[in-house]
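User: My collaborator sent over this chain with a note saying "see what the structure looks like." That's all I know about it. Can you take a look?
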Amino acid sequence: MTKTLLHWIALALAACASAGGAIAQVPVGYPVDYARAVEAARKEGKVVVYSVLGNKAAAPLVEDFKALYPGIEVEYDGNSGSSEITERFLGELKAGKPSADVMWSSAMDLQMMLVRDGYAARYASPEAPRLPAWARWRDQAWGTTFEPVVFVYNKTQVAEDEVPRDRAAFTKLLAERSEKFAGKVAMFDISKSGVGYLFAVQDEAQGQLPGLLQALGRARVQESGGTGEMLSKVNAGEYLLGYNIMGAYALVRSRKELPSLGVVLPLDYTLVLSRVMFISKHAKHPNAARLWADYLLSQRGQKVIGDAIGLFSVRDDVDAKYTATKLRDRIGAAARPIPIDPKIAAALDEKWQRAFIARWKGALAAATR
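Assistant: Without extra context I'll predict from the sequence alone. Here is the result:
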């Protein structure tokens, strides 16, 4: 064998060795050239994610992604609310400053407003075909979770035969046991909570507001800005019932730390929230952003969401503690996923939103007169 041939063999082996790390990390079934995207992402060095899921809660995802793709840092910011991250994102782009590569939020309407207004990049994720049709929008936005919207109650102070299983029963209970529940029912303040406003708009679309609002108003409903506060107060007995509560948090915390908290998946319909993710069209680290998006949508990422985080994986082929499949087995046709569609952003029109909130607050106030 000539020295020249030996030289070229050595070079070929070296090239294979240097590429081996990238090739080894290409998930099964992905395009062969995905290795190039991995290498490009490594050169970018990081991905910047703005989210409303807190840093501590999201840590299992961040650490698993970093284990899968060593050398790509995750600059994860989950310390702000949905309105704050939206305003920050828009403000930074307007000022020409670096901003999020990926936006990931439970405020579905705000996310789809940004998509509608042209801030989302197009990316044909190899994982997208495995999502339900309602959970993806034109290779620009994806639903990542399957989170029920529930009622909660205090198990020590609300008798089993009192527990409302649907909205008609909720309305009837408040009317018939007004003395017991007066001032003891909690829900989001829709003028302060983006997700609370989203749920209220979806309730109106289901035709459920008039009688229910009257009952809530007569019960002097307590309006709150946060899920955690409402869950803790229902568990402690300060409140006895909670309406339109984020169910993933309620179910997990009721099993771990809030023993007096009961959770109801409404039988008439259970709204289902999905945290919307999109890649910014102005991403400074677009390849790393694509890796993050694919990871979050993959079986591996979805299993972390369903096991370590407890937010219910959206995919049907994931074996985890909290999954869409297991939830649908419990509530069947009652599940009403909020679609990933720019149409849901229409309710954010400033004039329309002011009028809706005024009607909502007016109905609650009128019932107390």
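A starting point for your reply to your collaborator: DSSP finds 15 helices and 13 strands in the chain.
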